[in-house]
Amino acid sequence: MNPTLSKDAVREIYESPILELIYRAATVHRQHHDPQEVQVCTLLSVKTGGCPEDCAYCPQAARYHTGVQAHKLMEVDEVLSAAQRAKEAGSTRFCMGAAWREVRDNRDFDKVLEMVKGVNQLDMEVCCTLGMLTETQAQKLKEAGLYAYNHNLDTSEEFYRDIISTRTYDDRLQTINHVQKVGISACSGGIIGMGESHDDRIGMLHTLASLPQAPESVPVNALVAVEGTPLEHQKRVSVWDMIRMIATARILMPKAMVRLSAGRVNMTMEEQALCFMAGANSIFAGEKLLTTPNPDVDADQEMFQTLNIRPRPAFKAQKLEAV
């Protein structure tokens, strides 16, 4: 946490000339990370569609007609098989997403706990994104072996109400607090390209960097506009906007993993290389990110070879802390 960090200070970083910003972020990145390492993660939708919330960007909301078919929670053995395949393909973090508003103490949650235990035994960093949860539920996930929990802020507090009405900004902050309180690594970032202003982007980064404990993982997503959602007509966000977000996040949260997430499918290799230069050091591999398109594994392997990038090992942050 940086209690003296002002929003104006974040704005000054964010609005600096883009080449100067990239250079500064690259310098900070090299002070805290190996610039040739990028973590490869896999995100699997273990329970798809039928969500009661109204997130304007999400094709899994039951109220929107997006063509996403609702499916019940996958079986444990199916998920563990997928995790094994992901590991064999080079992933070191496996994240399981369920289209729930919140976690409920029922048989489905018990199955998720079994999934977490199984993936943990594969020596992968296991992450979940399941909606809101209580501190008691977070503790159960921790005991099952959960390494990280994803709960994005999505945008600034001011713009948030234009995107979601079924969950408050404070609800999100409370869930992040619950997972950090029990010792789970927090993964929290946001989405750009939803119609927000630059000031909203600055506000979100300021909120993340000013948390009592900054997130250990910060996903930066470009909106993938899906037909049938309220944001279906939003234009693709500029790659320079993505780079500006990544670089500012890197400078503000130097030890965090900054994850180049949704929207990567529309980027060229050269654009992705600039994102890595600006401080991104994680990608999601596989054909889909929950329900949206993603580059295929072969394209990512070719990119890694061209850029001389190595996959980051699992649990590296823990090992470094232990030294």
Automatic annotation (TrEMBL):
Binding note for cofactor: Binds 1 [4Fe-4S] cluster. The cluster is coordinated with 3 cysteines and an exchangeable S-adenosyl-L-methionine. Binds 1 [2Fe-2S] cluster. The cluster is coordinated with 3 cysteines and 1 arginine.
Record has ATP-binding as a keyword: no
Listed EC numbers: 2.8.1.6
Keyword Secreted: no
Quaternary assembly: Homodimer.
Function: Catalyzes the conversion of dethiobiotin (DTB) to biotin by the insertion of a sulfur atom into dethiobiotin via a radical-based mechanism.
This protein's name: Biotin synthase
Organism the protein comes from: Runella salmonicolor
Gene that produces this protein: bioB
